[in-house]
Amino acid sequence: PLILGIESSCDETGVGIVRGTELLANTVSTSMEQHVRFGGVIPEIASRAHLEAMVPTLQRALDTAGVGLDDVDGLAVTSGPGLSGALMVGVAAAKALAVATGKPLYAVNHLVAHVGVGVLDGGELPDRLGALLVSGGHTEILKIDSLTEDVELLGATIDDAAGEAYDKVARLLGLGYPGGPVIDRLAKEGDGKAIRFPRGLSLPKFVGTAEAPGKHRYDFSFSGLKTAVARFVEQYQAKGLEVPVADVAASFQEAVVDVITKKAVMACTEHGMENLLLGGGVAANSRLRQLLQARCDSAGIALRIPKPSLCTDNGAMIAALAAQVVAAGVAPSGLGFATDPGQPVTQITLADLHKV
Ligand code: ATP
Ligand code: MG
Ligand code: FE
After folding, report:
1. Atom of ligand 1 nearest to the CA of 11
2. C-alpha–C-alpha distance, residues 144 and 225, integer Å
3. Which of 8, 33, 117, 215 has the CB geometry, 3.0–4.6 Å to 317, for a possible disulfide?
4. Is the separation of the CB atoms in 216 and 274 below 8 Å?
5. Residue 55 labelled as part of a binding site
6. Which residues does substrate bind (predicted)?
7. What is the pLDDT of residues 300-310, one digit of tens each?
8. What is the complex's ipTM, to 2 decimals?
């Protein structure tokens, strides 16, 4: 089916058009520059930016794909999780389009879409699949038995997301926002073993064993790591010494990447998942890709990483998941659903809740 998908959960306004597993258009407009001076996404600004960008982004996606709204078989939109006001702009736009065109509308889960997008790069996804999602807002390990029916959350961050940790550490090192790309680059000039920063939730009391799993076996924590980096920097500054920025960046990155790759591979091994998909904006990280590939190779796990433009937030991922939802025969969501800023990953699509 020809599906048009709309994404507006955070700071990217995205409209994507797919035909089954074929990508026809993926137009993204971001308000990131407007958040730079605040060091993080400001919800109110993001919502306004979506309102400005939505229709031009839609127009450009249709032009790129060379299709008209009449050609579309179905519409899709992110209902959650994400920023409430930001989500509302996308959902309102999608409902208006559905009313105007009479096409069915599917409300889909943003996180599951980060996995579903995999079909656009490398073809159909295997049934039993693990997913490691790392972005500015999420750090999660998923077990997927069916992308349209059965998604389970195995573990998640209990405080900051990985991308958020990159952004906060970059800020305290005076490297600007977003922090991920700068730290990634700087780390190449530093020594990742120079400073041993804490690996969150990796003590035996949290991890346990395969037979007797600890409460946080597959969970993450990055706020202690961020504090450790801050203390380290403060100590240098207090002594009037120059902070070894490249070594700090490399050692911080090593701590993040070490835990997430270890836990993701452990989850796959223990749940019989022979395939792992990496998604989210932090998937662009060069060290993460390298170490995850090496550890997957040793464990006999096939790793899939969609190209970067499909890993960061975009509309094509929403369209790609909806195409699979349509193919699985799931009913459309109707027009009486709301946004769900905290939509759990187990809720793949939303049903029409409003009964008149
Ligand atoms: P969501 O969490 O809803 O997916 P988001 O906008 O926060 O939304 P993305 O756009 O997917 O997430 O990713 C942005 C994050 O990715 C930022 O925190 C940024 O620092 C991080 N990032 C981008 N490139 C890299 C990189 N090379 N290394 C590490 N982190 C990176
Ligand atoms: Mg973003
Ligand atoms: Fe995302």
Report:
1. 6
2. 29
3. 117
4. no
5. no
6. 133-137, 167, 180, 184, 285
7. 999 999 999 99
8. 0.97
